[in-house]
Amino acid sequence: MRAIWKDIKLYVLIAVVALAAFIIYKYSLLSYLSEENMERIVRAAGPWGPLVFIGINVLRPLLLLPVGLFSVVAGVMFGTVYGTIYTSVGVVIGSILAFYIAKYFGRDFIVRHFGDKLNNFDRISSDHGFIIIMLLRITPILPVDAISYGAGLSKISVWDFILGTVIGILPGTFVYVYMGAILRALSIEKIIIAIILFIAAMLIPLIWKDKIKYLISGNNDKKGM
């Protein structure tokens, strides 16, 4: 009975998400979260604006909205420093929410149906969870939320996930927030700086890639000895 319930709860989640997605896109509810409307909502909250912004950002993974949009809006409204802080807090909390949703609703299903094929994946994710998450966060290849939900299905510990997320999102978040901030006071110098920062953020994964591969393969070789 418990095994059946573990499968049912995943199907219920899928049905709820599908229904919510249908309603949201059918009635164009996402249009209310455009850059202009979001800025209007946050500014209307007055001194509570930062908390409102963080709250919307926390719920963002449920709607699969692009985090870059929130980062740019944060730069426009709060500036580079506070925008980076507020966006990072919202992204981290939202990522933890997505992580636990996947772990509670999906992990048992994955283990039941793909258990034998997960042994190597579980071992690597358990031993190198922090490095894996940090690399995936820094590398702008996979969506932020896809990483969070995927990590929840693995054996990555929550603390490795949180620490890897906090460190990994900072470079990209800062760049996008800075781009939003310069929209308030355009200047050729700031635009050049933004371009340099963006290129640097793209190069970081290439610099670290070989070292991380060495760490993982090196540890695996030691275990095989």
Automatic annotation (TrEMBL):
GO CC terms of this entry: plasma membrane
Pfam families assigned to the protein according to its UniProt record, in alphabetical order: VTT_dom (PF09335)
Lipid bilayer topology: Multi-pass membrane protein
Signal peptide: none
Transmembrane segments: 12-30, 51-78, 84-102, 130-152, 158-179, 191-208
Cited InterPro entries: TMEM64 (IPR015414), VTT_dom (IPR032816)
Principal subcellular localisation of the protein: membrane
Top-level taxonomic group: Bacteria
Record's keyword terms, sorted: Cell membrane, Membrane, Transmembrane, Transmembrane helix
Localization per Swiss-Prot or TrEMBL: Cell membrane
Domain called VTT: residue spans: 66-181
Keyword Membrane: yes
Family membership noted in the UniProt record: Belongs to the TVP38/TMEM64 family.
Stated name of the protein: TVP38/TMEM64 family membrane protein
Protein's organism: Mahella australiensis (strain DSM 15567 / CIP 107919 / 50-1 BON)
